[in-house]
């Protein structure tokens, strides 16, 4: 209504809008970490609990087929074992960062600590030599 009559909106509304925008921008890393925790935890759990079976006809004796059931688990393939371990570590790391986010030093130092921890965990996840079977 005020704009229709040629009046400018009050400056208080603009300040509140800026503070709300700053809060939302500050909330973005928390939401991204929470999404990362959820995604990596779900990937690790789904892969860890995954079991597939396939029943095949091996031979036919007379009129009766002989069948064999083949079952595969994630632990049968070393790449899947590494996948579950890596997702578990990533999930745990992101959860620890989320929980200790407020305990760390506030301000620019907090961001530097978190970024350095991210670089360290990325370095070890890329260059890891996990002993697999």
TrEMBL record:
**Does the keyword Ion transport belong to this entry?**
no
Transmembrane ranges?
Answer: 30-49, 78-99
Q: Which GO terms describe its cellular component?
A: plasma membrane
**Keyword presence, Transmembrane helix:** yes
**Primary location:** membrane
Q: How does it assemble?
A: Homodimer and heterodimers.
What family is it from?
Belongs to the Casparian strip membrane proteins (CASP) family.
| Protein known as | CASP-like protein
Q: Which organism is it from?
A: Triticum turgidum subsp. durum
